Amino acid sequence: WLVVAKVVVVSNWLLLFTSLSILVGSIGAINQSSLLRFIAYSGISHIGFVLWPLSYMSSGSWSVSIFYLVIYLPSVVVIAGITSYLNLKSPLIVSFSGLIKSNYVVAFTLGAAFLSLGGIPPLSGFLGKWFVIQQGINYHTYWVVFIAVVFSVLTVSYYLRIVKLIYFQDRGDILTWSSSLITVSSLSRPQSIVLGVNVFIMVAVITNPFPLINIINWFCYS
């Protein structure tokens, strides 16, 4: 009974950390102008989704958490890679306004990364959140499901705002920020390959997630 009690306590604490991570990350990202702070708060929220399945202490918990993490990483790699390539030390979100007019390949890649981070279909980030929330429903932790769904919908607006800036914002509308606007030159072949592979993962997994699921299950249970 003592072991069972300890498991229940750990499970409840993980659920609490999950809820707090999603709340703090989602609220903290509101109206952020700095890309780095936005990604940091977004990461806090995503950590909550990674911890959530682990709270159930079940055989499938690790698989769901790792699946979510694998889905999450390509988007971070793309955003970090492009930011590093542009040599931006303190990038502002508004700096990406009208990026599609400078380099449509980079704009498409960056937009896909933000949409996937937001869990917006048809990108794989949606599938990661769906699996985690579905497991929460199966284990009847409806209060965490409610928090996750409400704040996931809320954060979608943040990511759509960035995508709107990248694709649809006219640079002439933000003359005050003109010195911060980014102009992107052509990428090298290795850089294009790295970004292309990550975008492929973001797009391909949702069409057929089972190869990735099988690999993760083999890794967890072999």
From TrEMBL:
Bilayer-spanning residue ranges: 12-31, 38-54, 66-88, 100-120, 140-160, 193-219
One GO MF term attached to the UniProt entry: NADH dehydrogenase (ubiquinone) activity
Record-linked PANTHER family: NADH DEHYDROGENASE
GO cellular component: membrane
Protein localization: Membrane
Keyword Cytoplasm: no
Topology of this chain in the membrane: Multi-pass membrane protein
Annotated InterPro entries: ND/Mrp_TM
Reactions performed catalytically: a ubiquinone + NADH + 5 H(+)(in) = a ubiquinol + NAD(+) + 4 H(+)(out)
Species of provenance: Chiropsalmus quadrumanus
Signal peptide: none
Name of protein: NADH:ubiquinone reductase (H(+)-translocating)
Pfam families in the cross-refs: Proton_antipo_M
EC code(s) of this entry: 7.1.1.2
Taxonomy, superkingdom: Eukaryota
Protein's UniProt keywords contain Transmembrane helix: yes
The NADH:quinone oxidoreductase/Mrp antiporter transmembrane domain, residue ranges: 8-155
Keywords recorded for this protein, A-Z: Membrane, Mitochondrion, Oxidoreductase, Transmembrane, Transmembrane helix
